[in-house]
Amino acid sequence: MIMKTLMMDEADFLDFQLFGIASNFSDPAQFVFHLNRVYETQFSRCQDLDVKIEGEVSYYPTFEWEDCQSGILYYIIKNAAYSLNSSENERTLSGLFDVAPPIIPQFKQYNYLLKVMDLDDVQLPMQEGAYIQKIVPLEIDHIKTINRLIF
After folding, report:
1. What NCBIfam families has UniProt attached to this entry (predicted)?
2. pTM for this predicted structure
């Protein structure tokens, strides 16, 4: 039997816009709660984004919301995660709370990422304010680890 390999370019899967969010809330549940309350969004927790970095699996809390009026799908991903440290003793909980590297190390100054599944010029459902210090569009063409956000 002849084996064929299909080579695909990573750029074919980049059908989203990415924004960096700097917030004073480090707890993602608390951050999303305030977003939903103030901006009348409906983000809800979905399955964590599991990424294998340097042999360790890291878990990034992820929230999603589909705006029914525009049909746009939004994801909020915490840029920092927790990993299960397999080299530690499994009987202790200390390995559970080892902080893993950021999912996008180039932008570690942003503690949240907003992934917008639309390529048009979208109006963000939130803006800078009391607990959102900065929202900045990120150039995904220049991010080395963008493949971690393809899901």
Report:
1. IPExxxVDY (NF033205)
2. 0.77
